[in-house]
Design brief:
Layout lengths: L12 H38 L22 E3 L3 E8 L4 E9 L5 E8 L4 E5 L3 E2 L4 E8 L6 E11 L6 E11 L2 E4 L2 E3 L3 E2 L5 E8 L6 E6 L5 E13 L2 E12 L6 E11 L6 E11 L2 E4 L2 E8 L3 E10 L7 E6 L4 E9 L7 E10 L3 E12 L6 E11 L2
Parallel strand pairs: 2-9, 11-18, 12-18, 20-26
Antiparallel strand pairs: 1-3, 3-7, 4-6, 4-8, 5-7, 8-9, 10-13, 13-16, 14-17, 15-16, 17-18, 19-21, 21-24, 22-25, 23-24, 25-26
């Protein structure tokens, strides 16, 4: 009674030990069963808690200081090629990597070589064996032909302090434009000249629908729909925008900004430009005033000549420039008061404000028809000290 029995026989001392041992095992099993039950409930409770938006962030376990800097950044592939893409298409790429080191790895900075590549990283720190993805968006706008861009990844790793990945692309413009800027040769007042923009589209019905220019007094415009042509081994639709310098354009340095509209929704509007110089009877020597490198407080004096190529007498009525960087006095007088066909203009003053890329216009007012206002560029580097 009260003892464990084998074959209905009372237990001896050894059997009593066995009986006690079995009781201990049963107790241990009972405790383990309870712990197992608790453990089975805990994950569900934890999962529910993690779904709560107001859960406070937990502090990661402290790693062994000896493992700091022992991570290692390894990319599955360091170079990806987009192939042929149009310059209006954003292209997304994923660069897979893994921390193959013994310690945690922290990515401290991701630095692209230009603004056309935008990197995105889900987090900065990765545990040993953990994988991640660096997402790259490449914007080919303004690019043409074979393009290669790099992204440098900096880490806290002693083994891989930095790694460089590469984006390669062959960019084709959705609309091909030749040239982007038309430079006209210098003309004498009364002369005219014509040059053209060639605009190639990829759609079968491509058309330049409208062109406007901000300088109608100097430039005339004509649109010509040429039709299908072969360009760089491809079938494209050519439109020509013909630009002509007007015969009545006034002597001066002229610039025209052209707004081009098309029926291609991928590039419905863009700008081109043309520059021209129409020469009158008056000429300036030199044609630009160089300030050089100066600092605030420096005094200066510059001069240039305005002369008549036909030796016709004329008058200068005023000379001035609008610049907050200079405190200047502008004076002018004829070299020979009798002939008055050659004038000297002086600029004298002090630098009062910094302008590292100083570039302003000096205006000359005269009594010559169509040359009532001339401009001279003044440029230089004006620094604090």
């Amino acid at each position: 009674m009260g003892y464990w029995t084998f074959n209905n026989d009372p237990v001896d001392g050894k059997d009593r030990i066995r009986s006690d041992t079995m009781k201990s095992h049963q107790l241990a099993m009972f405790v383990m069963s309870g712990l197992t039950l608790i453990a089975g409930i805990a994950p569900n409770t934890q999962a529910q808690a993690l779904e709560r938006e107001d859960l406070a962030p937990t502090t990661p376990a402290v790693m062994d200081p000896a493992l700091e800097g022992k991570g290692s950044l390894i990319f599955a592939s360091k170079t990806q090629d987009t192939g042929e893409i149009l310059d209006t298409e954003l292209f997304n790429m994923s660069y897979l990597f893994r921390n193959t080191g013994a310690g945690p790895l922290t990515i401290t900075q991701v630095k692209p070589s230009c603004g056309c590549t935008v990197p995105e990283l889900a987090k900065k720190t990765y545990m040993p064996g953990e994988a991640g993805t660096l997402e790259i968006t490449f914007d080919p706008k303004g690019k043409r032909g074979a393009v290669s861009r790099t992204i440098t990844i900096f880490t806290d790793s002693e083994l891989t302090p930095n790694e460089t990945i590469v984006v390669r692309a062959l960019v084709k413009p959705v609309i091909l434009i030749e040239p982007m800027v038309i430079p006209f040769d210098a003309l004498t007042k009364g002369q005219t000249a014509t040059k053209e923009f060639k605009i190639f589209g990829r759609t079968d019905d491509f058309k330049v629908t409208r062109v406007t220019v901000d300088n109608k007094e100097t430039f005339d415009i004509e649109i010509i729909h040429d039709g299908e042509v072969e360009k760089n081994g491809e079938k494209m639709i050519l439109n020509t925008v013909r630009v002509t310098i007007r015969k009545d354009a006034k002597p001066d340095n002229h610039r025209g900004m052209f707004s081009i509209r098309t029926n291609d929704e991928r590039k419905p509007i863009f700008s081109l430009s043309a520059v021209a110089r129409v020469l009158g009877d008056l000429k300036m020597n030199p044609i630009r005033v160089t300030m050089g490198r100066m600092v605030v407080g420096d005094e200066f004096e510059r001069e240039f000549h305005v002369t008549s190529k036909s030796n016709t007498p004329f008058e200068i009525k005023n000379a001035y420039a609008n610049s907050v960087a200079l405190d200047a006095v502008y004076s002018y007088e004829p070299v020979d008061p009798e002939s008055r066909n050659d004038w000297i203009v002086r600029v004298k003053g002090t630098v009062i404000a910094a302008a590292p890329r100083f570039n302003t216009q000096l205006h000359i007012l005269t009594d010559v028809q169509d040359e009532e206002q001339l401009t001279v560029q003044m440029y230089g580097q004006l620094r604090d000290q």
